[in-house]
From TrEMBL:
<dbReference type="InterPro" id="IPR040131">
    <property type="entry name" value="MnmG_N"/>
</dbReference>
<dbReference type="InterPro" id="IPR036188">
    <property type="entry name" value="FAD/NAD-bd_sf"/>
</dbReference>
<keyword id="KW-0963">Cytoplasm</keyword>
<dbReference type="GO" id="GO:0030488">
    <property type="term" value="P:tRNA methylation"/>
</dbReference>
<feature type="binding site">
    <location>
        <begin position="8"/>
        <end position="13"/>
    </location>
    <ligand>
        <name>FAD</name>
    </ligand>
</feature>
<comment type="function">
    <text>Catalyzes the folate-dependent formation of 5-methyl-uridine at position 54 (M-5-U54) in all tRNAs.</text>
</comment>
<keyword id="KW-0285">Flavoprotein</keyword>
<dbReference type="InterPro" id="IPR020595">
    <property type="entry name" value="MnmG-rel_CS"/>
</dbReference>
<keyword id="KW-0274">FAD</keyword>
<keyword id="KW-0808">Transferase</keyword>
<comment type="similarity">
    <text>Belongs to the MnmG family. TrmFO subfamily.</text>
</comment>
<dbReference type="GO" id="GO:0050660">
    <property type="term" value="F:flavin adenine dinucleotide binding"/>
</dbReference>
<keyword id="KW-0521">NADP</keyword>
<dbReference type="InterPro" id="IPR004417">
    <property type="entry name" value="TrmFO"/>
</dbReference>
<comment type="function">
    <text>NAD-binding protein involved in the addition of a carboxymethylaminomethyl (cmnm) group at the wobble position (U34) of certain tRNAs, forming tRNA-cmnm(5)s(2)U34.</text>
</comment>
<dbReference type="GO" id="GO:0005829">
    <property type="term" value="C:cytosol"/>
</dbReference>
<keyword id="KW-0819">tRNA processing</keyword>
Length: 445
């Protein structure tokens, strides 16, 4: 049997390789790292997480992301299995020890006899064979040029920003305290999963002033700074209004200062555990394009972080993606070259879980093709089906932008009540319908 070739061993490529091998089809996984690195990657491991260490909400009843988690677990996904094995306390979210997670994914792929990992860069789009292109937002320049030549269009792009990571021992816990928002979580560890740094109004105003005045990364000529709203740099949010951060990542609601329980914070900076040892914490929602020197100065104005030592400072990188509604069919194949499938963030989904889910789906489709069969997309009533429907035709091509999974992509429920007051009943109805339909889709394969 001819192997399926995958370009890129990120979350999407790793998941695709796993699904194909589990279907009994050989896989060749081409990865240019570590021989050729990128701005954001630090290792040559598969499924390296370069931005946050969170897979977001794990609530599969009230949240579309949690429902996507459920579907990937139901489909025996490698990414979710390794995330569950290396998860960290994070309230209602699923966060992982990123180094242990990527190492485990790499080991699992290396141990699978049907998977061969080849350390090389692919610079052209193959004209024959069964291929999946899962190169992510940091597709190499040569391959990106090849994609543009074949599609006849310019790859669209926006910018992603990365949040800094702090050494836990340098956080002043006489000022900060441990608590998840609204004490969310079933265990004490979950309820104390975040470190919180409080600000009064004067401290918040001084922080905003410093943020706005700080030196920022300049863009090269011809680049336009378009951002995905789910990953906005904090200084861009601050530029939209001085109160924006206080109603976003720095909102104080659901938190009580353990040192001063009777004093209401005007704003709160949260840090989330980044590794199993609890020695590293990332600053939640603090993606930034500030220059390194400015970052240390500005972030040390945060109460509790005056003496913070940073394991990694924030940064910014270009994120390229296809105009998938015009280029991909409903089997995620490039219309001009049906031997090529695209998967992951390069297709215009946004987020770790969404990228891995598209890899899972592309892998199952490619494996079926290798065996002379066909796997259709899951029903659009499922989280995975809603995503692939959006990127392969459901979205307006003219205004296509990267998208997280959300209930707005799901077909409406006739019996659900409209408006915000109906969420308590509507969201569980969405997820139950999705579970039923996804289970039926799996059973039909």
């Amino acid at each position: 049997m001819e192997p399926v070739h995958i370009v890129g061993a990120g979350l999407a490529g790793s998941e695709a390789a796993w699904q194909i091998a589990r279907a009994g089809v050989p896989v060749v996984l081409h990865e240019m790292r570590p021989a050729k690195g990128t701005f954001a990657h630090k290792t040559g491991d598969c499924a390296e997480m370069v931005c946050s260490n969170s897979f977001r909400s794990d609530d599969d009843v009230m949240n579309a992301v949690g429902q996507l988690h459920w579907e990937m677990r139901a489909a025996s996904g490698l990414i979710m299995a390794m995330a569950d094995r290396h998860k960290l306390p994070a309230g209602g979210a699923l966060a992982v020890d990123r180094d242990a997670f990527s190492a485990a994914v790499t080991q699992a792929l290396q141990a699978e006899p049907l998977i061969r990992i080849v350390p090389e860069e692919i610079t052209e789009l193959p004209t024959t064979g069964n291929w999946i292109i899962a190169t992510g937002p940091l597709t190499s320049d040569m391959l990106a040029q090849a994609i543009r030549r074949v599609t006849g269009t310019e790859a669209l792009a926006f910018f992603d920003a990365i949040a800094p990571i702090v050494h836990a021992e340098t956080i002043d816990m006489s000022v900060a305290w441990e608590q998840s928002r609204y004490d969310k979580g079933e265990t004490e560890a979950e309820q104390r999963a975040y470190i919180n740094c409080p600000m009064n109004r004067a401290q918040y105003e001084a922080f905003i002033d410093a943020l706005l005045a700080a030196d920022k990364t300049e863009f090269h000529e011809g680049e336009t700074a378009g951002y995905f709203d789910g990953c906005l740099p904090i200084e861009v949010m601050a530029e939209r209004g001085r109160e924006t951060l206080r109603h976003g990542p720095m909102k104080p609601v659901g938190l009580t200062n353990a040192h001063k329980p009777d004093e209401k914070s005007y704003a709160v900076v949260q840090l989330r555990r980044d590794n199993a040892l609890g020695t590293l914490y990332n600053i939640v929602g603090f993606q930034t394009k500030m220059k390194y020197g400015a970052q240390t100065q500005v972030f040390r104005t945060i109460p509790g972080l005056e003496n913070a030592s940073f394991a990694r400072l924030g940064g910014i990188h270009r994120n390229s993606f296809l105009n998938s509604p015009t280029l991909l069919d409903n089997r995620m194949r490039l219309r001009q070259r049906p031997n090529l499938r695209f998967a992951g963030q390069v297709t215009g989904v946004e987020g770790y879980v969404e990228s891995a889910a598209m890899g899972l789906l592309a892998g199952r489709m490619a494996a079926a093709q290798a065996k002379g069969a066909d796997v259709p997309s899951p029903p659009p009533t499922t989280a995975m089906g809603a995503l692939v429907n959006h990127i392969t035709g459901g979205a307006e091509a003219r205004t296509f932008q990267p998208m997280n999974v959300n209930f707005g992509l799901f077909p409406p429920l006739d019996e659900a009540r409209g408006g915000r007051k109906g969420r308590k009943d509507r969201y569980p109805a969405y997820t139950q319908r999705a579970k039923d339909d996804f289970s039926a889709w799996l059973a039909a394969q």
